[in-house]
Write a sequence for this structure.
């Protein structure tokens, strides 16, 4: 699972080209605008790509057009998946509420689309004097139109300025879209991509599959049928695991890699760029931990508590799991003090049984590389462990910055 996602045995991609390779290999990177120590998409890529910088992603998305942002749970996808998403929209449409909105407001949406066609990339502020509405997506009807047109793939994000999104015609950025696949092909290919993104999944993977059906019960039946079709076709392989109600599945093409790992080896294409073990700080929405997968896969409890009241938080505001090798060994609460350009690791919580004497160098190396991602050498440690451990980590961080 970790190897398929570029997280084990170490980071194997580097720089701008590595960013492109990571997105192509991982197939999907979740997006979130909150920026405490980097946006979710940046943290996800930094955990996989040595020397990753935010402008690498901007270059890839907004200049090279090697990827695009789409979906209800907004994600970055490699460019080659645009045709599949187009097939989905053509065959399955949008969620019912947005299809109803479009049917009732088609004239308004077409006016917005014509304005973009005529004037080029536009953002919602262009309609600051538009009709006010009560909707969590936008306070103006033109803003909702932009969202629906984006979901329909009539437009896509041309570029961002901070959290402001500028949209342009999809075909102006990516050329003519292909003929859609059939409905059955679309369902199967979308499921295959989704299960490939999950890497290894059992019952926990079924809810991720999409059918656009109403009714949770009937939808689950259809999802299981699609999953079984891919198994019967030989594209997915079942792996029985004790205690699992539903056999795990993995892409059949990945089996040689997994077999090599089971024999104690490391596939050639997984060789890390640097042999030193390092702590990797995972993004809150990383596929290996999100939606309870940290508990399912690793027996590790993780809660993203940014939207919880302070008095109800168990750990902290923006806490990241710590991965060392194939184990989740703890959590940190990092803070980037922008005025001072200082990375503060305010707290660390370690899992029971973690040998901190063996964690010093990996943790220090992880902090050093995380600080490099943030563009600073100014690092401070808060309550990260016993005083002897903290002193050792501080020495290693200083040594690593020389």
């Amino acid at each position: 699972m970790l190897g398929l996602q570029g997280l084990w045995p170490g980071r194997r991609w580097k720089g701008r080209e590595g960013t492109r390779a990571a997105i192509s290999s991982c197939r999907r990177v979740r997006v979130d605008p909150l920026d405490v120590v980097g946006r979710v998409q940046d943290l996800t890529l930094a955990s996989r790509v040595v020397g990753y910088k935010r402008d690498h992603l901007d270059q890839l998305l907004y200049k090279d057009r090697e990827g695009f942002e789409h979906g209800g749970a907004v994600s970055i996808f490699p460019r080659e998946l645009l045709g599949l998403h187009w097939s989905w929209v053509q065959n399955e449409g949008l969620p019912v509420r947005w299809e109803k909105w479009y049917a009732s407001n088609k004239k308004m949406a077409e006016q917005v689309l014509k304005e973009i066609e005529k004037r080029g990339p536009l953002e919602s502020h262009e309609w600051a004097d538009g009709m006010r509405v009560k909707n969590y997506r936008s306070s103006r009807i033109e803003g909702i139109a932009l969202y629906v047109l984006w979901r329909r793939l009539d437009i896509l994000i041309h570029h961002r300025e901070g959290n402001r999104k500028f949209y342009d015609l999809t075909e102006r950025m990516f050329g003519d879209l292909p003929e859609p696949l059939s409905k059955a092909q679309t369902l199967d290919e979308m499921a295959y991509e989704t299960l490939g993104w999950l890497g290894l999944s059992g019952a926990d993977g079924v809810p991720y599959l999409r059918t656009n059906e109403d009714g949770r019960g009937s939808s689950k039946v259809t999802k299981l049928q699609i999953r079984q079709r891919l198994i019967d076709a030989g594209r997915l392989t079942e792996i029985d695991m004790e205690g699992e109600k539903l056999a795990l599945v993995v892409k059949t093409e990945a089996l040689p890699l997994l077999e090599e790992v089971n024999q104690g080896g490391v596939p050639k294409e997984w060789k890390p760029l640097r042999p030193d073990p390092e702590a990797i700080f995972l993004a809150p929405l990383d596929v290996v931990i999100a939606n309870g997968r940290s508990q399912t896969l690793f027996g590790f409890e993780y809660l993203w508590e940014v939207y919880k009241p302070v008095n109800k938080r168990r750990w902290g505001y923006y806490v990241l799991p710590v991965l060392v090798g194939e184990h989740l060994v703890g959590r940190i609460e990092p803070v980037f003090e922008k005025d001072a350009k200082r990375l503060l690791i305010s707290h660390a919580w370690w899992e029971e049984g973690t040998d901190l004497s063996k964690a010093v160098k990996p943790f220090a190396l992880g902090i050093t590389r995380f600080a490099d991602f943030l563009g600073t050498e100014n690092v401070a440690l808060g309550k990260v462990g016993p005083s002897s451990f903290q002193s050792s980590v501080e020495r290693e961080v200083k040594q690593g910055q020389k």
About this structure: The longest strand covers residues 327-337. The mean pLDDT is 95. The domain at 81-174 is CATH 1.10.10 (Arc Repressor Mutant, subunit A). The first helix runs from residue 15 to 26.
